[in-house]
Automatic annotation (TrEMBL), chain A:
Gene3D superfamilies: YycH protein, domain 3-like. Residues 65-232 form the Regulatory protein YycH-like domain. The lineage of its organism: Bacteria, Bacillati, Bacillota, Bacilli, Bacillales. GO terms for cellular component: membrane. It holds the Pfam family YycI. This is Regulatory protein YycH-like domain-containing protein. It comes from Paenibacillus montanisoli. InterPro entries: YycI-like.
From TrEMBL, chain B:
InterPro entries: YycH, YycH/YycI_2. Residues 430-478 are annotated as: Disordered. It comes from the Bacteria. This is Regulatory protein YycH domain-containing protein. Residues 4-419 form the Regulatory protein YycH domain. CDD domains: YycH_N. Pfam families: YycH (PF07435). It comes from Paenibacillus montanisoli. The lineage of its organism: Bacteria, Bacillati, Bacillota, Bacilli, Bacillales.
Length: 239, 478
C-alpha cells in the first residue's frame, strides 16, 4: 500500500471539505454582520406570494436579533395617550426636531425628560417622539409635538418611570425576516406596501399605573395600517 | 521528510474541519428556536365540564297559544318544555319559502289559533339551529338569524303552518314541508291547559295571571384560583408579570395578553388583542370557537344558553347564560355572576369574561317561593321606570353573596332591556306563602270576570290558573 499517495488523496479531500465549510461559515458570519436585508433574502416561496398578492417592500429588513426582555414601567401622567396638551408660549422652529442637539437646546427647558425621547413618524400636523428604553422606542409612550406654519406650537407628553426588571430574562428576538415572512403569508392584505420595520416595545394597556411592554416588531404599511408582532412568541396584534 | 510534512498537513486539516463543523453547528445565527419557555409545560388537569353546541342552543321559553285569547308559557328544563322540545327536535322542516312578515296578521293568529312559539331571545344563526333541529333550506335561509319559530293550526283550514322569523323583524320563512300534523299541535297545546295562564301586555310581553312556583336555594360554591386560570390562558406562564390596577384588582400580563382578576378573585376578564384582517365573518364559526375556548379554559358549570349579544365592527359578542334549574341566574350588583361573555373575531377569542366560582351540585337548602302574578305583576311592569325599553319579562334567580363560599339564589321577576341588561322587576312573596285568588300577587277573583271565563279555563288546582286573557288583551295589548 502506498501511504504517501493515500495521504495526498486525503489531504486533497480534506482541503476541499475545509473550503466548503469555510465558505459556509464565512457567509454565515457575513449575514450576522450585515445590518439589513432586502426582498431577495426572503425565501422564494415568500417572494412568489408577494408577487401574487402584490405586496411591496419599500424599506430594508433589519437583520439584528438582540436579546431583549420585557419592561415594567410606572405611568406618571394621567393615562397613556390622554395627557394634557400644553401650548408653548414661544413657538419654536419645527426643523429642530431633526437635530437632537438643537431640540434639547430649544425645548429641553420646557419639556421634561426630553433627552429620553427620539423622533418617530412625522404626520401632517404633528411629530411623534417615542420614549426610548435601552436605545429602542416604546411604541405606547409618546411625546407629541404639534406644529403649524413650520413652528412647534404645543406638546402632549406621556411621562413614565422605568421600574427595575424583576425576574425578566433576556431572550434573543425573532429575526425581522421571519416576521415579514409570516406577515406576508398570513396577515397582509393584497396590495400592501411595507413602509417600516422597527424593533421596540409594545404591550396591552390596562387601567393601571404600572404597565408591561414586551419586545415587539412593528411593521407599518403605507396606508397607515400597523402590525405589532411579539418578538419572542411571534403573535400578531393590530392595536 | 515529505511524508512527515504530509502527516502534519493532514492532521491540521482534519482538526480544522472539526473546528469549522462545530462552529457551523452551534453558532448559526438566525436559526434554531429563540423561545425558551421559562416554565416547563405542565399538562393541566381539565377544569370544569366540556359542552357541545347542541346543548347550549334551546328556546328561552315557549309560548303556548290555547286559542280564544289564552296563552301560557313554559320555561326550559320543565317537564312539558322538555317533552315538546324533544318532539320538535325529531321533526323535519323543509322547503322554506321567504316572505314578508307583515303578510300575516300575527295578532289575530296569536289569539285565535292554537299553536306554539319557540322564542330564542335575540336570535340564533340558522346554521347552528340546524345542529339541534332538522332543517333543510337554501343558503339565504341558512345564513340568516332566527329569533322565533311559530307553529300553529290554522283554524279555517285544518292544516299546520310553520314559520321561522328572521332576526331582522321583517322576513319570515315558512316551512311548507314540515312533517307536523294538526294532532301534534293539539297535543302540545294540550300540555298548556293546566298551566298558569299568562296575559299579553304589548307585542311580545306576557305576564303570569297567577302565582308562579319557584325555588329559593342556598348553594355552596367552589372557586378556581386566579393562578389556575392563568396557567390555562397564558402561552408561557413563566414570563407573566403581576401588576395591580387603580381599583386594587390584580392584572396578569405577558405584554400581549391580560388577565384582570376582579371581585376579590371571583371574576376574571381576559383580553387578548388579535390582528384584524377585515374579512367576512362566519357567525357559526365564531360560536364554535367560543364553545371550544370555554371547554379548554375553565369549562362549564351546569346548563347554559347561547345568547347572541350583537356584532360591533366585525367583533361578535357572545354570551352564555347560566341556568339553575329552569331559571337563568342574573347578577345582583356589585356581585357579578351568572354568565360568560366572549368577544370573537374571525374565530379567535379576544375577550373572555367569566366567574371563577362553580356551584355545587346539591343545594344546602331549598325553599318554595311564589312569584306574584296577576295585577301585582302587571302594575309592577306598568310602573317600571324604563318600561319602554323592556323587551322581555321572565322569572330569574338573583345571585346574592351570602356567607363565605355560599350564595343565595332568590327567585325574582326580571326584565331584559333593549341594551341586553337584565334587571329585577319584582321580588318573590316572602316566606313561601302562596297568594290565593284575589290576594295581591294571586290570580284575579273569578267573579269579577265571570262573563269572560271559558268553561275549560277554570282549573281546580289551587288557583294557579284562572281567567282567560281575552278581554284584557283588548285594552292592554299594542
Amino acid at each position: 500500500m502506498d501511504w504517501g499517495r493515500a495521504k495526498s488523496v486525503l489531504i486533497f479531500a480534506f482541503l476541499l471539505l475545509n473550503l466548503v465549510l469555510g465558505y459556509q461559515l464565512w457567509s454565515n458570519i457575513r449575514e450576522g454582520l450585515r445590518t439589513s436585508a432586502d426582498v431577495s433574502d426572503l425565501r422564494p416561496e415568500t417572494q412568489a406570494m408577494m408577487e401574487e398578492k402584490k405586496i411591496k417592500l419599500s424599506t430594508s429588513i433589519p437583520s439584528e436579533t438582540p436579546a431583549l426582555r420585557d419592561l415594567t414601567y410606572r405611568v406618571k401622567t394621567k393615562q397613556l395617550g390622554k395627557g394634557v396638551r400644553h401650548e408653548l408660549k414661544e413657538p419654536v422652529d419645527s426643523k429642530v426636531v431633526f437635530e437632537t442637539k438643537e431640540l434639547e437646546e430649544s425645548l429641553g427647558g420646557i419639556i421634561p425628560e426630553l433627552k429620553n425621547y427620539a423622533l418617530g413618524p412625522v404626520y401632517e400636523n404633528e411629530f411623534i417622539l417615542y420614549r426610548m428604553a435601552e436605545g429602542r422606542p416604546m411604541f405606547d409612550v409618546k411625546l407629541e409635538l404639534f406644529y403649524k406654519n413650520q413652528k412647534i406650537i404645543a406638546f402632549k407628553q406621556d411621562l413614565i418611570e422605568l421600574l427595575p426588571p424583576q425576574d425578566a430574562v433576556s431572550q434573543s428576538v425573532l429575526s425581522a425576516t421571519k416576521v415579514v415572512t409570516s406577515l406576508i403569508e398570513n396577515q397582509l392584505p393584497n396590495g400592501a406596501v411595507i413602509e417600516e420595520i422597527k424593533l421596540g416595545y409594545h404591550g396591552q394597556i390596562f387601567e393601571s399605573d404600572i404597565q408591561v411592554s414586551a419586545p415587539t416588531w412593528r411593521v407599518l404599511l403605507e396606508d397607515g395600517g400597523q402590525y405589532y408582532m411579539n418578538a419572542i412568541s411571534g403573535e400578531v396584534v393590530t392595536e | 521528510m515529505m511524508d512527515k510534512l504530509k502527516t502534519w498537513v493532514l492532521t491540521a486539516l482534519v482538526i480544522l474541519s472539526l473546528i469549522q463543523s462545530y462552529l457551523l453547528a452551534y453558532s448559526m445565527p438566525g436559526l434554531g428556536v429563540t423561545t425558551i419557555p421559562q416554565q416547563d409545560y405542565v399538562p393541566a388537569e381539565p377544569m370544569g365540564q366540556e359542552e357541545k353546541v347542541e346543548n347550549v342552543i334551546f328556546p328561552e321559553d315557549m309560548v303556548l297559544h290555547l286559542g280564544k285569547g289564552k296563552h301560557t308559557l313554559l320555561y326550559p328544563a320543565s317537564n312539558f318544555y322538555n317533552l315538546i322540545f324533544g318532539k320538535i327536535k325529531s321533526r323535519e322542516f323543509k322547503g322554506f319559502q321567504r316572505s314578508a312578515a307583515v303578510v300575516v296578521d300575527w295578532d289575530e293568529i296569536r289569539d285565535r289559533d292554537q299553536g306554539l312559539e319557540l322564542r330564542f331571545g335575540r336570535g340564533v344563526p340558522v346554521e347552528l339551529l340546524s345542529k339541534v333541529l332538522k332543517l333543510e333550506g337554501d343558503t339565504t335561509f341558512m345564513d340568516d338569524v332566527v329569533n322565533r319559530i311559530w307553529i300553529y293550526k290554522s283554524s279555517d283550514r285544518d292544516e299546520v303552518r310553520t314559520y321561522f322569523f328572521s332576526g331582522d323583524g321583517l322576513t319570515v320563512y315558512e316551512s311548507v314541508k314540515a312533517d307536523l300534523t294538526a294532532q301534534d299541535v293539539q297535543m302540545y297545546v294540550g300540555y298548556g291547559e293546566y298551566q298558569t295562564n299568562y296575559r299579553r301586555l304589548g307585542q311580545d310581553i306576557y305576564t303570569a295571571d297567577g302565582p308562579v312556583e319557584a325555588m329559593q336555594s342556598v348553594v355552596g360554591y367552589d372557586s378556581y384560583s386566579p393562578e389556575q386560570m392563568q396557567r390555562y390562558l397564558f402561552f408561557d406562564p413563566g414570563v407573566t408579570r403581576v401588576i395591580s390596577d387603580q381599583g386594587g384588582s390584580q392584572i396578569y400580563t405577558d405584554g400581549k395578553r391580560g388577565l384582570q382578576v376582579e371581585q376579590n378573585g371571583r371574576w376574571i376578564n381576559y383580553t387578548d388583542p388579535v390582528s384584524v384582517q377585515g374579512q367576512d365573518d362566519n357567525k357559526s364559526q365564531d360560536v364554535y370557537a367560543a364553545i371550544q375556548f370555554i371547554n379548554d379554559h375553565g369549562g362549564w358549570d351546569g346548563m347554559h344558553r347561547f345568547v347572541h349579544e350583537g356584532t360591533f365592527e366585525s367583533v361578535q359578542v357572545l354570551r352564555f347564560q347560566q341556568y339553575y334549574g329552569s331559571f337563568p341566574i342574573i347578577p345582583q350588583e356589585p356581585f357579578v355572576f351568572g354568565s360568560m361573555k366572549l368577544r370573537v373575531q374571525q374565530g379567535v377569542v379576544s375577550e373572555y369574561e367569566r366567574s371563577l366560582l362553580t356551584l355545587q351540585k346539591k343545594p344546602k337548602q331549598r325553599n318554595v317561593r311564589w312569584l306574584p302574578g296577576g295585577d301585582m305583576l302587571e302594575s309592577a311592569f306598568e310602573n317600571y321606570a324604563r318600561k319602554q325599553d323592556v323587551t322581555a319579562i321572565f322569572p330569574a334567580l338573583l345571585s346574592v353573596a351570602a356567607e363565605k363560599n355560599v350564595m343565595k339564589l332568590e327567585p325574582v321577576w326580571a326584565v331584559r332591556l333593549r341594551d341586553g341588561s337584565q334587571k329585577t322587576l319584582l321580588q318573590a312573596i316572602p316566606g313561601g306563602y302562596k297568594p290565593g285568588p284575589g290576594e295581591p300577587g294571586g290570580a284575579p277573583l273569578q267573579k269579577a270576570n265571570q262573563d269572560s271565563v271559558e268553561p275549560d279555563s277554570i282549573v281546580g288546582s289551587g288557583g294557579i290558573a284562572r281567567l282567560s286573557g281575552g278581554p284584557l288583551d283588548g285594552h292592554l295589548g299594542g
